[in-house]
Amino acid sequence: MRILVIILLMAIPHVVSSESLGRADFPDGFVFGTASSAYQFEGAVDEGNKGESIWDTFTKKPGRILDFSNADTAVDQYHRFESDIGLMKDLGMDAYRFSISWPRIFPNGTGEPNPDGINYYNSFIDVLIAKGIQPYVTLYHWDLPQALQDRYEGWLSSQVVKDYEHYAFTCFKEFGDRVKQWITFNEPHGFSIQGYDTGIQAPGRCSLLGHLFCKKGKSSVEPYVVAHNILLSHAAAYYSYQRNFKDKQRGKIGIALDAKWYEPMSDCDEDNDAARRAMDFGLGWFLDPLIYGDYPASMKRLVGERLPKITPEMSKRIKGSLDFVGINHYTTLYARNDRTRIRKLILQDASSDAAVITSSLRGGVAIGERAGSSWLHIVPWGIRKLAVYLKDNYGNPPIFITENGVDELNNPLMNRDKALKDDKRINYHRDYLSNLSAAIREENCDVRGYFVWSLLDNWEWNSGYTVRFGLYYVDYTNNLTRIPKASVQWFQSILHSKHKLSY
């Protein structure tokens, strides 16, 4: 009986109180921060001589954004960055991960940089430094200049590599004296699939179901071409930095990859293999070339000639072209083998190439509680398994969790006080951080930082303003006022705490 009780207790997910989690549960120098992107936060779409981006164009297409909104104003961080940085300081955060808007630096995609854009980001970075907040800068968070999309179809052309390198060089030159952590791309897997396979995000290209949703595209080919050009662009920026800036600026270059954890639906070999393929086609698509110099074997086998070749010369440049890996992790799904391949027969797209069917349900039971967004289930143990997978399969590279967070639905009829009491968010971060701490301390995973998505409620791509991820509530009906949720006080308590976890 005693053995049975012990087994049952071990099966219960570990929960710690907010009072028992603190900085001391993480290594010295571990970085806590919040994350954002220019398009979702800045607004000021027509100010400072900013050029148009592919998302400015995309949001004008009817039916693409759930609430028919756009990010022309977003949460107006362009004008409010000083006070927003003050909120970060009050929280006790060490760093802010934000992105630079390419069309704000180069309205036409290339050529001479826009002085207004340079001045804006200089002011932004200066205030961060003055407040003791480290800037972690993402160079590309999905907002390609529309001019390059019009000129040569953007990421589908190898011409983009040269223009991206020029853009990155300019940012290194202008801001690298103060910015020491650079992230070349945010979620390249996400925008390759959603922009060029399903077509649900900018630039909205696909060939699904007879082009009912998209005017142009080829869903079985274009995502792989885009991803290939992203890898070449990343390597070009990395070596540009090494040649021209590394000796003097001493910064580091990484990339932020979106990574779900995929748990096998069953213990059978075919589902274990399916879960591994799901990891290959998600995380491995980009991390295998960067660590090992080539695409995963499962991708080469299943995609065949549609997968661009990484030549020996390309492999030499891509392999090892990073100082750290950023991981954007939110949720976990079950994965099982797609025996029939009917999805592939019907869709003829990149997403079905892996021969994997994913689900949040097993035997009718959800893998975890659902958040506001239908894709986000709360599965804290997934982040630990993911960290161990990275250690075991990629040589334990330095990792930053560059995004992690949870949302609730934006209910305009909900009482304000109730909306500010975000216990689900507190529990989410407590449990994910507890599992991350365990991965570091017990599994020796080299994880060096954790960035909350996000500081503020914001414009959330296709969902518009229908969900809220922020630690601070943004009152969209009252001058975008920032109001702290309960999670703000919780983070303040743990970031100033020296307590150890009590396992």
Task: Summarize this entry quickly.
By secondary structure, this protein is an alpha/beta fold.
Structure write-up:
The protein contains 19 helices and 19 strands. Strands 1-2-3-4-5-7-14-16 form an eight-stranded parallel beta barrel, surrounded by five helices. A three-stranded mixed sheet has the order 6-8-9. A two-stranded antiparallel sheet has the order 10-11. The model is unreliable at 1-19 (pLDDT under 50). The chain is 41% helix and 16% strand. By secondary structure, it is an alpha/beta fold.
Topology diagram in text:
Blueprint: H1 2-11, E1 31-35, H2 38-41, H3 54-58, H4 77-91, E2 95-99, H5 102-105, H6 115-130, E3 134-140, H7 146-152, H8 159-175, E4 181-186, H9 188-196, H10 222-244, H11 246-249, E5 252-258, E6 261-264, H12 269-292, H13 297-303, H14 312-318, E7 324-328, E8 332-337, H15 342-347, E9 356-359, E10 361-362, E11 365-366, E12 369-370, E13 377-378, H16 381-394, E14 399-404, E15 408-409, H17 416-420, H18 423-443, E16 447-452, E17 467-468, E18 472-475, E19 481-484, H19 486-495
Parallel strand pairs: 1-2, 1-16, 2-3, 3-4, 4-5, 5-7, 6-8, 7-14, 14-16
Antiparallel strand pairs: 8-9, 10-11, 12-13, 15-17, 18-19
Structural key phrases:
503 residues, alpha/beta, 8-stranded parallel beta barrel, 19 helices, 19 strands, globular, disordered N terminus
**Low-pLDDT segments, ≥5 res:** 1-19
Q: Could you give a short account of the major beta sheet? A: 8 strands, parallel, barrel
- What strand order characterises the main sheet? 1-2-3-4-5-7-14-16
- Counting DSSP H or I runs of 4 or more residues, the number of helices is 19
Q: Taking Cα atoms only, what radius of gyration do you get, to the nearest Å?
A: 22 Å
